[in-house]
Amino acid sequence: MPDTATVNVTPLEPFGAKIALPEYANNNPTKLTDDDFAKLKSAVLTHCVVVIPDQAQLSPNDQYLLTKRFDPSIPEPKDHTGGYGHGKEFHHDKSVLRKDGCTVKDQPQVQILGQGEFAADEPGNENGEAISLTHPSHTTFHHSPLSQSEIVNDKLTRFYRWHIDSALYDLSPPLVTTLLGIKVPPQSQKNYIEYDNGDKLELAQGATCFVSGQHAFERLSDDEKRFVLNTTVEYAPHPYIFIGPAKATSDGLTMVSEGKETKLDELPEWEPSKVKKLPMVWTNPETGKPHLQVHGCCIHKLHTTNEDGSVSTLELEDARNKVHSLMRPAIAPENVLPYAWNQGDLVVFFNQGVWHSVTGEFKGVNHGADEKRLMHQCNIASGKDPVNTTAIAA
Ligand SMILES: [Fe+2]
């Protein structure tokens, strides 16, 4: 029998865990004692993705407080609007993120994501006025998208963009992200992803897909491990604006190199000191294990320290090709957790330890009508960058 006086953790396959809250918390995860919160945090860092069911009533303020509690390094914001993991750039008119949601007015660290029109009084619309949401579709981001017939008739979809939630300029990647499914399509509606080698993944429509950065590292050859442990990823300045005119590969892992990126001198003002240079491997602060953590779409260069101490640099196209070869095995169907949403699920994921991707096509797929979905997302830039403390193999 589970102990209802404390947090209970049930592992999922291929990774992840389900959480049962203690009775005293009254179904509110912000009410956990310090000891029980420590258990929850340990579960998030160990299992990388955890789900707390029946949280549709969680307020944006409680979601913010819960998210912030995971990372004591987060600086106290100057006012109640501070800290969202993407900063102000999220809605820049040239950013690839600009259509990805609207902000909860009174809790701007919480974004409303989804698809469809929501009246002022609908559950989850906290803004007091009607809102219109657009689910990110790979058709606007991939170089060679599926046809509307493949989407509607064959139920095909793609990994939209494998990523880590992060501005990747100036701000540090958030430690965790919380994602609350308030209105989601039924799990019985299926989609399929076809791979370049003939593999196929079946998943619920709109599943959020996760890959473990730890497993991704473990699967590398010894030579590849040596390479990633010795390599620093330099991200582009204002990376989401940099890649704005470019298009992604069909697996959502990186960008197709056609020279379409915004020129560095045409970007909004940027400072070299704010450009993010992060190790390719981040050490899990709970388990000590190395995680391969790269945002393949936003990279600019790779800098590798050689045995003799010299540094070799791969420029944009070569860096993308290298990163793609290292990341591709990790997204094979058997390695992906395609999380199928239940209404009220609160998913907490270790953003510095997994890669994740939106999937699902919601436009015109329901006998010509659009699907509806509404979610609340929160992440807060960490107070420090992730580090690699894994001993470098000789
Ligand atoms: Fe995300």
Chain oligomer state: single chain
Total strands:
20
N-to-C SSE string, H for helix and E for strand: EEHEHEEEHEEEEHHEHEEEEEHEEEE
Gyration radius (Cα, Å) is 20 Å
How much helix is in the residues? Answer: 10-25%
What is the CATH topology classification name of the largest domain? Double-stranded beta-helix
| Mean pLDDT figure | 93
Q: Can you tell me the residue ranges where pLDDT is under 50 for at least 5 consecutive residues? A: none
Strand content: 15-25%
Small molecules (ligands, ions, cofactors) in the structure: fe (ii) ion
Sketch the major β-sheet. 9 strands, mixed
Structural description of this entry:
- It is a single chain.
- This protein has 394 residues and is of the alpha+beta class.
- The protein folds into two domains: 8-210 and 339-379, Double-stranded beta-helix (4-Layer Sandwich), CATH 3.60.130; 213-330, no CATH class.
- Helix content is 15%, strand content 25%.
- It has seven helices and 20 strands.
- Strands 1, 2, 3, 4, 5, 6, 7, 18 and 20 form a nine-stranded mixed beta sheet that branches.
- The model has no long low-confidence stretch (mean pLDDT 93).
- The chain binds fe (ii) ion.
